């Protein structure tokens, strides 16, 4: 399959479509300066990205909104050209908080709607304004998840025009089936955002999602920032992989470009994060070469089935998604 920059969108089951590459925007507050995120979004839009992945909990959604609005005002893009994905955090999964939380995101962005709104993790935490609710011993305070009730509240947001498409993130097969089999389901999840790259290729979840018209959006597609405060760094650095680097040499590309090309070539959306203008541009230059079938298979064989993002601090939550095989 050869993908060109001009048609780099894939259809969603609800009739909308998603650009196959987006800009990730998560950064630990200590490692980004004020304005880095806005600059990076502006460079991305100028480069040709039309998809931005963000979240209220990343604390930089206001910079994304500012950058998008600036590019619209400049006449560079129209609102309908941009695809923004926002995320519903774990402290807002109770149905009565869903719409006000989405409205908070829209207010921060200063936009009328988001293109995709996803349940960020299937685990509910104590509802309220404290995004990291913990008790006096530092233990996380959980809440009973009722993912179907959360989903119904999201469906109402779509019907009200606040969001174009609905999806999920970090859902395993059982949790996806819970929504897909919900009585009177009105809107299916169009996507599941999960970790996905050559060291964690997700063959089973990918197949299941393809069978149900659910697009996989690959987070940490380059193997994360390897920040040991939240990343399992026992798996070796993906960008240093020998095969990926030698394929890069063959095509006059970097290992990062080969890694991203691998996923988009098998229909997986990628959202690499960079706040470095040169790397933002580099990550988009993946439409002018194509990997052979054998190279795709060789890259698939790199799968180690080890996550960089394990979310182990929540492994005792009843809805922790990663105990299941997939
Ligand atoms: N739903 C979820 O639970 C979830 C979880 C994790 C991430 N996400 C989303 O997915 C996005 C991407 O994941 P991620 O941020 O974990 O990791 P990533 O995109 O795999 O990697 C980002 C790291 O790679 C560096 N980088 C970017 N382009 C590069 C290149 N061409 N060559 C070398 N290094 C490069 C970045 O540094 P520079 O910035 O300095 O370039 C940064 O340190 C996030 O930003 C977020 O939007 C979602």
TrEMBL record:
Could you give one GO CC term from the UniProt record? Answer: cytosol
Q: Which GO terms describe its molecular function?
A: Delta4-3-oxosteroid 5beta-reductase activity
Show the Gene3D superfamilies listed in the entry: NADP-dependent oxidoreductase domain (3.20.20.100)
Q: Which UniProt keywords apply?
A: NADP, Oxidoreductase
Q: Which SUPFAM superfamilies match?
A: NAD(P)-linked oxidoreductase (SSF51430)
Which residues carry the site feature described as Lowers pKa of active site Tyr? Answer: 87
Catalytic site? 58 (proton donor)
Q: Outline the extent of the NADP-dependent oxidoreductase domain.
A: 21-303
- What biological-process GO terms show up in the record? androgen metabolic process; bile acid biosynthetic process; C21-steroid hormone metabolic process; cholesterol catabolic process; digestion
- Residues holding substrate: 143
By its UniProt entry, which Pfam families does this protein fall under?
Aldo_ket_red (PF00248)
Q: Which family does it belong to?
A: Belongs to the aldo/keto reductase family.
Q: What is this protein called?
A: 3-oxo-5-beta-steroid 4-dehydrogenase isoform X1
Q: What is the scientific name of the source organism? A: Carlito syrichta (Philippine tarsier)
Per the UniProt record, the lineage of the source organism begins with: Eukaryota, Metazoa, Chordata, Craniata, Vertebrata
């Amino acid at each position: 399959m050869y993908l060109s920059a001009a048609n780099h969108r894939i259809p969603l089951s609800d009739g909308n479509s998603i650009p196959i590459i987006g800009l990730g925007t998560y950064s630990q507050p200590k490692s980004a300066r004020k304005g880095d995120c806005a600059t990076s979004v502006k460079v991305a839009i100028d480069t040709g990205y039309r998809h931005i992945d963000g979240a209220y909990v990343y604390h930089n959604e206001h910079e994304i909104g500012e950058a998008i609005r600036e590019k619209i005002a400049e006449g560079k893009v129209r609102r309908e050209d941009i695809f923004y994905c926002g995320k519903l955090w774990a402290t807002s999964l109770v149905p009565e908080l869903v719409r006000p939380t989405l409205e908070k995101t829209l207010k921060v962005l200063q936009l009328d709607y988001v293109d995709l709104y996803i349940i960020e993790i299937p685990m509910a935490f104590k509802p309220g304004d404290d995004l990291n609710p913990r008790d006096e011993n530092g233990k996380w305070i959980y809440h009973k998840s009722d993912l179907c009730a959360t989903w119904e509240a999201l469906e109402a947001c779509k019907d009200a025009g606040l969001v174009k498409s609905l999806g999920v993130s970090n859902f395993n097969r059982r949790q996806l089936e819970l929504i897909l089999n919900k009585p009177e389901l009105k809107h299916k999840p169009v996507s599941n955002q999960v970790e996905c790259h050559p060291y964690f290729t997700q063959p089973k979840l990918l197949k299941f999602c393809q069978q149900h018209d659910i697009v996989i959006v690959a987070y940490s597609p380059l193997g994360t920032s390897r920040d040991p405060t939240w990343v399992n760094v026992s798996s070796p650095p993906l960008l240093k992989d020998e095969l990926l680097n030698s394929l890069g040499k063959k095509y006059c590309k970097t290992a990062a470009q080969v890694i991203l090309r691998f996923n988009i070539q098998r229909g997986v959306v990628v959202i690499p994060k960079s706040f470095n203008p040169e790397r933002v541009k580099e990550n988009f230059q993946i439409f002018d070469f194509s990997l052979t079938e054998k190279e795709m298979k060789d890259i698939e064989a790199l799968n180690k089935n080890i996550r960089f993002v394990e979310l182990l601090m929540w492994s005792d939550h009843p809805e922790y998604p990663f105990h299941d095989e997939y």
